[in-house]
Amino acid sequence: MTSKTPIHLDINGHRHELEVEPRVTLLDALRDHLGLTGTKKGCDHGQCGACTVHVDGQRVLACLTLAAQAEGRAVTTIEGLAEGDGTLHAVQAAFLEQDAFQCGYCTPGQIMSAVACIREGHAGSDDEIREYMAGNLCRCGAYPHIVAAVRQAALEVAS
Ligand code: FES
Ligand code: FES
C-alpha cells in the first residue's frame, strides 16, 4: 500500500488541504479529489491539451504534472476564469460569440491555452494562433471558429 502525503493546493484563490499518494497527478487531484471537473481528461498522456490549466500564470498539462509539484503555487482552472460576479473572461465570451465548440469537451483546455497564448503575445495573426494553439486538439474540427475566437479576444484584450 502506498502512503499518502498531505499537500495544500492553491486553486482559483482558495486553499485546499488534501492527502494524496505521491503519484497522483494534478488532473486527478482536481477532478477526483476536489470535484473540479471543468478540466477535462482526454488522453491522459500529454497529447491532447484537454487538461490545460495555469500554474503561476503559465499553461501546463495537468495530466503530466504531479499534484505535489503544484504545492504552494497558484493554480487557475476554467472554474476560476470568470469574475466573481459571473462576468465571463473575454476569451470565454469570444468562444460563445464565435460558436467555437461543438461537443465542448476540448473547450476548457482550449480556453485556458488561449488565455495564455494571448498573454504570451502569440496571438498576432491566425498563423501564430494556430501555431501556439497546436497542442490543443479538437476532435470535432472546430478549429476555424476557435482561431476566430482567439483573434477576437486578443483584439478585445489589447483595446
Ligand atoms: Fe492531458 Fe490529454 S489529458 S494532454
Ligand atoms: Fe468537440 Fe472540440 S468541440 S472536441
UniProtKB/TrEMBL annotation:
A matching Pfam family: Fer2_2
Originating organism: Mesorhizobium tianshanense
Domain 2Fe-2S ferredoxin-type: 5-81
Protein's name in the database: Xanthine dehydrogenase YagT iron-sulfur-binding subunit
GO MF entry, a single one: 2 iron, 2 sulfur cluster binding
InterPro entries linked to this entry: 2Fe-2S-bd, 2Fe-2S-bd_dom_sf, 2Fe-2S_ferredoxin-like_sf, 2Fe-2S_ferredoxin-type, 2Fe2S_fd_BS, Aldehyde_Oxdr_Iron-Sulfur, Beta-grasp_dom_sf
Keyword vocabulary terms for this entry: 2Fe-2S, Iron, Iron-sulfur, Metal-binding, Oxidoreductase
